[in-house]
Design a protein that fits this description.
Strand content: 5-15%
Order of helices and strands: HHEHHEHHEHEHEHEHH
Number of domains: 4
């Protein structure tokens, strides 16, 4: 039921009036506070403008722009860093792929010959050729008898075993063709500096082709791989042996030419000695006739002349005998030479010659094949020059410069070591070594030192140390 009492509406009206007043006051206070804060901000801005001026504010704005640019650059660098990481990962993948390809590629890098150890020790290239032919016959038999490539599954095609066998044979033929192609190329290209790389190439081909053939359950056998590697090694070592044989034949021909020159020199010297003996014999005969006809003091003079001519005749006859003996024996000279301008210090050539004038041989060695002439440190006369040369070579075998071609007679020794060995051998009279040997401790090398002086004073040619390898034999 609704009440009609007016006294009840008064408190409500009062309450509403109070709320309205409070709300109005609150809004007025908030408006006044906002206005005060704006006024304070404007005053602060004016204060900053008065304190720093517009230039400083512009600098602050520029600084802010710089910070924004740095932020953009940093974000760009982060993105670039992520790209670099991706590039590094791609580079790593590329390197791994390159390593795999390197196994099948013929690299140009030179591999030291010392890394390869010869597997065979045949005396001649013909024996190498015979063994190579034997290995190739074994390869043919392995292919013919089905021992080169094995299939571990009896495949069928549409339920047909015969069709499966045909498919397997065709696949084996394809595998053999691929592997033999790699092996034949390696054998054809093998050289002294690529044998190790070619071995790796064949093994890599073996592994790669077997990996592909694994899906068909086929594989090249290890025994067939061994035969192909044996073929490669034999082909390589046969080439090395043929080269050694060519060098040996060249050295033999050179030795024969040297012997022919020595023989011609001996014959020429013998002919001159015999002519000299004949001239002195005739002069002696004439002097004796004149001495028989002379009398008194003249006879005494002719007798003295006869004795002088007899001594000269004996000397000529002795020379004839010496030349004849040189023709029939191994008498000659063993020389010790150096050439610091061509080969560096501490390297000596130890050789022999049977020429009557051994310096002629030394002059020949210093021909156009080397830039400077040789210096003689010792010229040792002996009744058996080849034996003394061989003994010295054997004594200093471990100090040879060229350990492959033993015809090269250069050694890394000291002159004192050579002299000590020669003295030791000369103590045995049977060696027939001359007791009087003049040793020259230092080489003159006049042309070399004069050239060095000109190098240092010339801007066109820079001075360089003498090389440490030999070229002449």
């Amino acid at each position: 039921m609704e009440s009609n009492d007016p006294n009840l509406d008064v408190p409500v009206l009062v309450a509403l009036l109070v709320v309205a007043v409070v709300t109005t006051v609150l809004f007025a206070w908030l408006w006044w506070r906002s206005r005060s804060e704006r006024a304070a901000a404007v005053a602060r801005m004016e204060q900053l403008q008065q304190a720093y001026g517009p230039v400083e504010l512009a600098a602050q704005r520029a600084h802010m722009v710089g910070l924004q640019a740095q932020q953009a650059e940093y974000q760009h660098s982060v993105a670039a860093g992520q790209k670099r990481d991706e590039l590094a990962a791609l580079a790593q993948q590329r390197d791994e792929i390159a390593k795999q390809l390197a196994k099948l590629e013929d690299l140009d890098a030179v591999v030291s010959v010392g890394l390869y150890r010869p597997r065979y020790d045949f005396a001649t290239s013909d024996l190498f050729a015979g063994q190579l032919e034997s290995v190739r016959e074994q390869m043919k038999r392995a292919v013919k008898e089905g021992r080169a490539v094995l299939s571990h599954v009896a495949w069928t095609v549409d339920g047909s075993k015969k069709a499966g066998e045909k498919m397997t044979k065709e696949f084996i033929k394809l595998v053999l063709r691929a592997f033999n192609g790699e092996c034949d190329a390696s054998v054809a290209k093998v050289k002294w500096d690529s044998i190790v790389q070619m071995e790796k190439r064949i093994v890599a081909a073996f592994e790669a082709i077997n990996k592909i053939a694994e899906s068909n359950r086929c594989e090249i056998t290890k025994s067939y791989l061994d035969l192909r590697l044996a073929e490669l090694r034999l082909a390589h070592e046969m080439q090395v042996k043929k080269q050694a044989e060519r060098e040996e034949q060249r050295a033999i021909r050179e030795q024969m030419r040297e012997e022919e020159r020595a023989q011609r020199e001996i014959e020429r010297a013998k002919d001159e000695a015999e002519k000299e003996e004949l001239r002195r014999a005739r002069a002696l005969e004439q002097a004796r006739k004149e001495a028989d006809r002379a009398v008194g003091e003249a006879k005494a003079d002719f007798d003295a002349k006869v004795k002088e001519l007899e001594a000269k005749l004996a000397e000529a006859q002795s020379r004839v005998r010496a030349v004849s003996m040189a023709e029939l024996t191994t008498t000659g000279h063993v020389y010790v030479l150096s050439n610091i301008g061509s080969f560096g210090d501490g390297m000596y050539k130890i050789g022999m010659t049977r020429r009557l004038e051994p310096q002629d041989r030394v002059d020949e060695l210093g021909d156009a094949s080397v830039p400077f002439p040789f210096d003689v440190h010792a010229m040792i006369r002996t009744v058996n020059a080849p034996a003394l040369e061989k003994a010295l070579h054997e004594r200093f075998a471990s100090k040879r410069v060229n350990l492959v071609n033993l015809r090269k007679e250069f050694f890394r020794v000291t002159l004192e070591e050579i002299e000590a060995v020669v003295k030791e051998m000369s103590s045995n009279p049977s060696n027939g070594i001359s007791a009087q040997i003049e040793w020259r401790r230092t080489g003159m090398a006049e042309e070399y030192w004069e050239s060095r002086g000109r190098w240092t004073s010339s801007a066109e040619i820079a001075p360089r140390s003498a090389p440490a390898t030999g070229l002449a034999s």
